[in-house]
Amino acid sequence: ATADNGAPTIFDKIIAKEIPANIVYEDEKVLAFRDINPQAPVHVLVIPKVRDGLTELGKAEERHKDILGELMYAAKIVAEKEGIADGFRVVINSGPAGCQSVYHLHLHVLGGRQMKWPPG
Ligand code: 5GP
Questions:
Q1: Which residue in 43, 64, 104, 106 is the catalytic one?
Q2: Full-model pTM
Q3: Is residue 64 among the annotated active site residues?
Q4: Which atom of ligand 1 is nearest to the CA of 93?
């Protein structure tokens, strides 16, 4: 029971295991699973299991600082598990102009190929 300020998303169903996902890492607070539309050989999404109003990074509040750290550290664990810890990218799309489509904050962990910069 949380005071989320947005509508439920598809990620709630993944957390509840109501729809399948290819889970690569899970702990008490975070879940990491393969993106359904991968943009690189490794493309994993890292999400908080409880959204607690954290729909997008641009709406983060002080109380979210701990979970934001948990997510970042989980991204590193995922990179290690996937064998890309020597070179990878972490992306957060925030808001419409940031191309966010699912309003449950998530980190994209991308790797397994040479990444380009700037991303466009
Ligand atoms: P955003 O555009 O919000 O940063 O990223 C949302 C990501 O979620 C997209 O890369 C999209 O492919 C992924 N996605 C959307 N629906 C599903 C789903 O049902 N399962 C999985 N595994 N990924 C999804």
A1: 106
A2: 0.96
A3: no
A4: 4
Q: Tell me the CATH number for domain 10-111.
A: 3.30.428.10
For the record, the structure tokens of 120 come out as 């466009």
Instruction: Locate the domains of the chain by residue range.
Output: 10-111
The values of phi and psi at residue 53, to 5°, are 80, 0
Locate 61 and state its tokens.
């509040």
Residue 1 has pLDDT above 60, yes or no: no
pLDDT in tens, 74-112: 999 999 999 999 999 999 999 999 999 999 999 999 999
Instruction: Specify the 3-state DSSP secondary structure of 116.
Output: coil
Name the token pair of 62.
Answer: 């002080």
Structure tokens given for 69 = 């750290």
Find the residues whose C-beta lies inside 6 A of ligand 1.
10, 21, 33-37, 45, 93, 99-102
